[in-house]
Amino acid sequence: MENLFGRLLRTRMGKAGIKESELAEFLSYDATYISKWINGSKLPSARNAQRICSQIAEFFASRENDGKDRNVLQRQIASELFSAWKSDSSYFSFQGYSNYQMSFTDSRQTLVELTGAALQQAVNREGRTVEMAATFDIFRLYGGEFKRLVQSLHDSGVSNVRLKMALNTEHMAEDYSYVTNILNTIGRLDYIEMTIVCQKAGQPRILLINDLLCLQILWNDGVNFAAAFSMEPRVIESFSQMCEQILETAPQLLEPAQPENLKRTNAQLDSYSDQRQWLFFNEPPAMLFPDDIMDSMIREADDEEYASYLMKLKNVFSKRTRKSHIDLVFFSSMLNQYLSDGKVNVGNVSHQLTGEQTRRHLAYLSRVMTENPDFNVWLIRDTVRLNEELRQMPSIFLDSYALSIENSKITSNSNFHISMDSRMRDGFQHFFEKILTMPSCIRLTAEDLLRYL
């Protein structure tokens, strides 16, 4: 155990010149409690922790004299102590699941709690980076609890998540929960590298979380459940090698992609060149700019590589995209924001357009709609009550051959995922077509779009 609370308490006591007996007397506690807090064998109870941290901070602030405002210092000390207590409490909770080299559970609820505790411990210990790998279908086993786990990671402020998992694609086209789980996981986290492979029958079903936990599903028939797990480093290392081999040799369904690689391989250009496209922008629609706006972006490019990419994109937009069969979907609030601030990301580079340029961009989209009856623009009216999952979704780009997912929303980043697997692509196409049937999703005419100007 790291004993953050005990070490911090000892440091603060030394700085304030306070003895264990003095602190015990102030809190009306036996001195043995203070000793146990310091050596890490005990922690204040969850019920009393915040109150005790505040009282200790009040006592320390009254004895320290470093020129700070007393109330400010008291709040600072209380916050530091409570944060350390939460970290140590999480560790105690996590370790409480096992006292042996290998433990057993027949409860799915325990599995979820154990996973949550391990993820929280990973956030506390590993510099806000979480690595999770599973050779089985997490979405199906965890059900709705997986979304709650992802939300807890988001709430913890985790900066980087690497998730590798296997997926059962048998019912993906009919079961939208697979697509929504993927989109929810990518959309709710600031940065994630999600790799999904095809689950193989007969392979060991293993779960790993950093170097903290390994788990194997022994039995799961929908009614009965059993799993063995361990927190011992040697056991985790053995399971890690097995898990890595299974995931590395399985067919890939979805993988992370760096923006530089997308440009280098012309993946984005190929998508915009395709005759049939489905596009959901959870950001301003960064496509089909008039030639003069593209020329302005090219002149302002920071390097020749990006300028070359924009010149290719300009050519694709004018000669292919505008003639394609396209369903383009975006939010009404995003459209209004774009008209207001002119911020748009093109090729993962942020651009600031003038008000006149944004209006000409939308006017050009309207003209394309008039000239090409297969160019359809759909607007989701998010001023009405809307499913929160849809608001959190990243942008989706589908063509006849590939799926791309981009989580940039308002600011550009490198959070891209791509799939060339037909099962994955088809599942997302069916989900996309479901979006078009929502009551809040309305097909615009060319004249409707002009009214926003």
Q: How do the helices and strands line up, and which of them pair or pack?
A:
Elements: H1 4-16, H2 20-27, H3 31-39, H4 49-63, H5 70-95, E1 103-105, H6 108-125, E2 129-134, H7 138-142, H8 145-155, E3 160-167, H9 176-188, E4 192-198, E5 205-209, E6 213-220, E7 225-230, H10 233-249, E8 252-257, H11 259-264, H12 267-273, E9 276-281, H13 291-299, H14 304-319, E10 325-331, H15 332-341, E11 343-346, E12 349-352, H16 355-371, E13 375-380, H17 388-392, E14 395-398, E15 403-406, E16 416-419, H18 422-436, E17 441-444, H19 446-451
Parallel strand pairs: 2-3, 3-4, 9-10, 10-13
Antiparallel strand pairs: 1-7, 2-5, 4-8, 5-6, 6-7, 8-16, 9-14, 11-12, 13-17, 14-15, 15-16
Report, as a whole number of angstroms, the end-to-end distance: 61 Å
Structural class call reads alpha+beta
Helicity level, as a percent range?
40-55%
Largest sheet geometry: 15 strands, mixed
Which blocks of ≥5 consecutive residues have pLDDT under 50?
A: none
Q: What portion of residues belong to β-strands? A: 15-25%
What does this structure look like?
50% of the residues lie in helices and 20% in strands. With 453 residues, the protein is of the alpha+beta class. It has a 15-stranded mixed β-sheet, with helices on both faces. A two-stranded antiparallel sheet has the order 11-12. Strand 3, helix 9 (176-188) and strand 4 form a beta-alpha-beta unit. Helix 1 (4-16) packs across helix 3 and helix 4 packs antiparallel against helix 5. It is globular, with a radius of gyration of 27 Å. The mean pLDDT is 87.
